Amino acid sequence: MKSKSAIYQKLINRKKKFAVLVDPDKSDPQRIKNIAISSEKFAVDFIFYGSSLLTQENHEKFISIIKDNCSVPVVLFPGNYLHINRKADGILLLSLISGRNPDLLIGKQVMAAPYLKSSGLEIIPTGYMLIESGKTTAVNYISNTIPIPSDKEEIAICTAMAGELLGLKLIYMDGGSGALNTIPASMIQKVKENISLPLIIGGGINFSSQAKEISLAGADVIVVGNAIEKNPSRLSELSDTIHSLN
Ligand code: 1GP
After folding, report:
1. Going by C-beta distance under 8 Å and a sequence separation of 6 or more, which residues neighbour residue 204?
2. Which has fewest Cβ within 10 Å: 33, 90, 150, 193?
3. Pocket mutation for ligand 1, best pick of 174, 177, 182 (most atoms within 8 Å of C-beta)
4. Residue 58 confidence class, pLDDT cut points 50, 70, 90
């Protein structure tokens, strides 16, 4: 029986955490298995599963491979409600609060609500904020929203504060997968100073030095996808760096 709050309890502990993003479109069963085994071995805190656009239909199989090979919680990071799968442990129920696209603020969530209610998944209401990162990322294009400019710290702060006041439980600031620039440390620091929610940071983090700087700036969870897809051996190094800060 899954605990209904195990993921959130872990998110709010004061330790620095590391999440590996698995994009099923860029994976195959063997790669997924290898990532699951390495995630267990190197104490990854969460496996985020998802993408803005999923073209494959083998999610049951892929999530089962992860579950069979590790005990790391699998958290859905959905592009839309079609990506809900009850084999996972939880889901980031995203509201794209940096954008002004009503469908991603509330529309898709309305469509998803009955499935989520009966899914048994731990649901984590998440304020999702896109930050400009040097190129048009898939999530910018698919979401049809303008990201927050990376030099507009006040907008990021007020957006995160509004998310907290609206009752969201988590803020995820994302430069988008494959971002050219990571989110500036000063923006992360100021947002963290102005909210009391856990803060997830992702997008374009390739090196341990970047993960360390972003963690020290205030990120509670560092998410890495692309860098590990390109070079799976980086997983252990990133995990060690992030956890050494605890
Ligand atoms: C994207 O935050 C994630 O939504 C991870 O980004 O793939 O660039 O690591 P990368």
Report:
1. 133, 134, 175, 176, 178, 179, 180, 181, 182, 210, 226
2. 193
3. 177
4. confident
Q: Which atom of ligand 1 is nearest to the CA of 139?
A: 4
Sequence-separated (6 or more) residues with CB below 8 Å from residue 35: 20, 22, 27, 47, 66, 228, 232, 235
Distance (Å, whole) CA 234 – CA 207: 8
Burial of 230 (0-12, 13-18, 19+ CB in 10 A): exposed
At residue 204, φ and ψ (nearest 5 deg) are 75, 15
Does residue 102 register a pLDDT over 60? yes
The pLDDT of 19-31, averaged and rounded, is: 93
- Counting from 1 in the atom list of ligand 1, the atom nearest the Cα of 227 is 9
Is the minimum distance from the CB of 120 to ligand 1 under 6 angstroms?
A: no
Domain 16-244 fold is TIM Barrel (3.20.20)
Query: What is the maximum alpha-carbon separation in the chain?
Result: 45
Q: How far is CA 51 from the centre of its chain?
A: 10
Domain ranges of the chain: 16-244
DSSP assignment letter at 103 = I
**70: phi > 0 → left, psi -120 to 50 → alpha, else beta; which?**
beta
Q: For all residues of the chain together, what is the average pLDDT?
A: 95
What radius of gyration, in Å, describes the C-alpha atoms of the chain?
16
177 Cβ inside 6 Å of ligand 1:
yes
